[in-house]
Amino acid sequence: MDAHDRGSTPRHDDPGTPSEPTPRSEASVASEPTEPPGSPPAPAPAPAPARTAIPTPRPASPDPDPRTGVAALSLRHQIGVALALALVAIAVCVHIGMVFLHVAPVNTVTRQHGGAVDDWIYPEFEQNWKLFAPNPLQQNVAVQVRARIRGADGGSRTTGWYDLSAQDGRAIDGNPLPSHTQQNELRRSWDLFVATHDANNRPIGLRGSLSEAYLRRIAVLRVGREDALARGDVLVSVQVRSRTSNVPPPKWSDEKVSVQPVFRELSWWPVTADDTEGSVR
Asked: Using H for helix, E for strand and C for coil, what is the string for the chain?
């Protein structure tokens, strides 16, 4: 038997004869996926899309000298802003100068131009230094008024006392922007009356008569606001008085002051046509 013989069937290695396929093992056959008969063939995987390069925008070069504020405005607007600032600066300088002349001692400028200074200061920019005085006010002063009225039937009656200071206080309380009239008109008129009259309420000089007319007209105006006059009534005269009471000291103080009010009653003033014009008709 030849050495090349393998079993009963010899192998012929003929180069022209195709060789038989080598049988595969069962494990390799089991590992391959099986497709059911009649199923369409699996589609071929789609080729990956080609990537398109997106150009990155280049940042814009910053302005080497950016304009801000007033410099960013046009020339016309810059001129307008400059003029406005100049006017504000002039007004501030004038106001500071007027206030300085008002509080400064009497000098040559105030002697010649005192009227212009007072017109600028009063009444809006009045300077009151009583808070910083060595002896500040420690009293509450209330101004009150009552009236005599002649009725349409010829009879006469006298009203009760109207507390004008309390009315101003209620108007100011809780008001963030009270008017100058509510704050100072009545107070200033009474201060002027006291400064131009003696202890017996007699006027001193020409300003005394002027202060009486001013206070009387305020009283007539306030009585008219109280609806004290009925139809056909005539306001004949008014009387003004002050009620002064000391401010009580704090609890920790040993100071003893009287809390009883002190009244100062003025004489009855007849009401003229000039007093009622524009207030009570």
From this structure: CCCCCCCCCCCCCCCCCCCCCCCCCHHHHHHCCCCCCCCCCCCCCCCCCCCCCCCCCCCCCCCCCCCCHHHHCCHHHHHHHHHHHHHHHHHHHHHHHHHHHHHCCCCHHHHHHHHHHHHHHCCCCCCCCHHHCCCCCCEEEEEEEEEEEECCCCCEEECCCEEHHHHHHHHHCCCCCCCHHHHHHHHHHHHHHHHCECCCCCECCHHHHHHHHHHHHHHHHHHHHCCCCCCCCEEEEEEEEEEEEECCCCCCCCCCCCCCCEEEECCCEECCHHHHCCCCC
Torsion angle of C-alpha atoms 109, 111, 112, 117, degrees rounded to 10: 70
How many Å apart are CA 242 and CA 144, to the nearest integer? 6
* C-beta of residue 70 within 8 angstroms of C-beta of residue 78: yes
Q: How far does the chain reach from its first CA to its final CA, in angstroms?
A: 162
Which own/partner contact pairs does 242-246 have at CB distance under 8 Å and 24+ positions apart? 242/141, 242/142, 242/143, 242/144, 242/190, 243/141, 243/142, 243/144, 243/163, 244/139, 244/140, 244/141, 244/142, 245/139, 245/140, 246/138, 246/139, 246/140
- Is the pTM value of this prediction over 0.85? no
Condensed to tens digits (0 to 9), the pLDDT of residues 109-158 reads 888 888 899 889 887 787 766 656 666 678 899 999 999 999 888 889 99
pLDDT, tens digit, 9 for 90 and up, residues 29-38: 444 555 555 5
Q: Which residue has the tokens 């280049």?
A: 58
- Of the pLDDT bands very low, low, confident and very high (cuts 50, 70, 90), residue 273 is confident
Amino acid at 262: V
